[in-house]
Amino acid sequence: MDKKQISEIINELGEENFSYDPVSVPIYQTSSFLFGSFDELKRAVSSEKDAYLYTRGNNPTCEVVEKKIAALENGEKAKLFASGVAAISASVMSLLKTGDHVVCVRDCYSWSYKLFSRYLSRFGIEVTFIDGVNITDWKNSIRSNTKLFYLESPTTFTFFLQDLTAVSNLAKENKIKTIIDNTWATPIFQNPLQFGIDLVVHSCSKYIGGHSDVVAGVVVGNTKEIEHIFNTELLNIGGILRSFNRLALLRGIRTLSVLM
Ligand SMILES: *Cc1c(COP(=O)(O)O)cnc(C)c1O
After folding, report:
1. For the whole model, what pTM was predicted?
2. Which of 53, 73, 170, 181 has CB atoms 3.0–4.6 Å from 152's, for a disulfide?
3. Is 206 a catalytic residue?
4. Is position 181 annotated as part of the catalytic site?
5. Residue range 160-180, pLDDT digits in tens
């Protein structure tokens, strides 16, 4: 992506539809939204993903940030969460059930490691940790019940890399989903969806927020995958970002490419 495209995304995209043409994106500090008729309300309730109904689901301020991060990652849709860990756990849990097996990079962020090694083991989900550098290790770790490859490239502190194309091709051949934590590279330096990865997660508390004043997370993917997460983990577990933090995040994103 060239600098002009990045600048348009960061400074303009998603900001055109607010009434009164505000220069700064307004905070929509509201729990609920009103409807002109009962039929409109019924429609919104039956498909909350397409409506502004209640702020645990969609909110206009949130959507501006989601559109920008989705575009920076070359993805169709994004969903913000209260933290990177909230985005990671919601994305992971939306794809797994009891009896499934996961292959995960060993040097992933510590709380991602604990999600797999401690938390999900309570629900009968098994995990194999590998350093992830050689594709043969991924291949040899596949079992009949493997449902997810979890990547982080570069990995936390050790900066091991994975071959995103090779891992995503291997996953597709075996009907395995792929999630990558792209926090370290940021969307400025790496767009994993282009290499066939299914879902990209970020801790926005780091480079995307950029100013150490917000804890937030995001997941990006195609519309079907993100709507699935919206309808399952987001609405049920409800780890949404607070309204002031959406604005802090938006302000941070304005200078992301300069920072990187
Ligand atoms: C910080 C971090 C997380 C966790 O994000 P929080 O916003 O702190 O919940 C996940 N992955 C990586 C690589 C991180 O650096």
Report:
1. 0.97
2. 181
3. yes
4. yes
5. 999 999 999 999 999 999 999
